[in-house]
Amino acid sequence: MNGIFDPNTHIKTITLVGVGGTGASTARIVARILYDMQRARQHTPSLVLIDPDRVEEKNIGRQALFAPADIGQFKAECVARRLNAALGLDIGWIAEPVDPERHADRFGSTLVISCVDNHEARRAVHRMKGVLISGGNHADAGQICIGNVDDVDLMRRFIDGRDGKYPYLPKEGLLFPALLEPEPPSERPLAVLGASCADLVDAGYQHLLINDWIATVIGTYVYKLLHRQPIRTFVTFVSLDGISSRSLIVCKDELLAYLPEQT
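^ thats the sequence. predicted structure below, dont judge the formating
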């Protein structure tokens, strides 16, 4: 039986971690959603951007919202200020590495959006409480996941849902544990090992538009969650090579196929 993700939580804060290739585009989409909600006089969560990196020349044109005058400034601050000025919002920013102890609501009333590109940051985000929407990509394809638990035993106890609703879905790290580990050297050419998204685009290894597509799917999950629309899928795969997307529906069979064995 197909189900619907229903975390039964009141989102007070949206924390977007990583404001680079995917993150800057995601921030713009989420800001538009919040602006639209404000105009409709709906409850509007606050938005905070977290990223310790500064704008570099290579980011201009390859990552949304950055201009030559921003070089040397913190990415999180630049994006927040630009969107606040454009839409009259009050987006906050934290220009330091994400810390799951200090940057998350301990009661789980936070929507965390992960747009990071290294395993250390993914591990930190994985520990944050709340609903997690995470996006990751390689050359011209990627995946977007939505979930709220990292406990495989808990997930298996609710594998059938309750009356068609699933209060829990597995986080990215539970579905794809390799993402929480260092990337094997054989996965990329030596010249791009440890490179950022901008470096990969510059090297011709990553498609210029893959971050935008990942951001659009993340934004769609955010929109559905904030507007309490049915969320019927828990992973979406996208491919620019085939100009295609494929989503896994929320159901026992699809979930069991990706869950690790019980501990």
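The mean pLDDT is 91.
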